[in-house]
Amino acid sequence: MSTLSIYTKLETLTPDLKEEVNDFIDFLIEKSSKEKKKKIIPEFGSAKGKIKMSPDFDEPLDDFKDYM
Q1: Distance in angstroms (rounded) separating the CA atoms of residues 68 and 60
Q2: Which of 17, 44, 48, 56 sits most deeply, having the most CB atoms within 10 A of its CB?
Q3: What are phi and psi of 28, to 5 degrees?
Q4: What is the reported pLDDT for 18?
Q5: How far apart are CA 31 and CA 57, in angstroms?
Q6: Distance CA 45, CA 50 (A)
Q7: Cβ distance 47 to 55 under 8 Å?
Q8: Virtual torsion, Cα 20, 26, 32, 38, nearest 10 deg
């Protein structure tokens, strides 16, 4: 739906209905901003036990033996 068609429809409404549309638009904007704020913030330690490292993680790689 284009902005022009919305504007054309809006112009046909009575002032009372225009006010109601304005309130609804404000509601949608507020609802949209609340949805953005609902981001999940992880708590400290929430990934404990989910990440595993191999015992030889710090050992040099075989590919670099020629350079050592």
Answers
A1: 9
A2: 17
A3: -65, -40
A4: 94
A5: 47
A6: 10
A7: no
A8: -120
Which amino acid, one-letter code, is at 14?
T
26: left (phi over 0), alpha (psi -120 to 50) or beta: alpha
How far apart are the C-alpha atoms of 8 and 17, rounded to whole Å?
14
What is the distance between the alpha carbons of residues 28 and 7, in angstroms, rounded to a whole number? 17
Model confidence band, residue 38 (pLDDT cutoffs 50, 70, 90): low
- Residue 21 CB: number of other CB atoms within 10 A? 14
pLDDT in tens, 1-33: 788 898 899 999 999 999 999 999 999 999 888
Q: What is the DSSP string of 47-62?
A: TTTT----TTTTSPPG
Sequence length of the chain is 68
